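User: What would this chain look like folded?
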Amino acid sequence: MPLTVRRLRQENVELRRTVEVYAEMIRQLAVENQALRRPAANVCPLPARPVSRT
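Assistant: Here's the prediction, encoded as structure tokens.
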């Protein structure tokens, strides 16, 4: 196999790996974005005015 074809095949393999890494990063960001956009079930609303403590 000529050197050029071998080099191109190796570049192709490396690019596929890079695409896999980016795809996983995008997937994780999408999941995180989805979680942040959900109504926050674990966030308690603050009272309108301070509660007096005695």
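The chain has one helix and no strands. If you want, I can go into more detail on any region.
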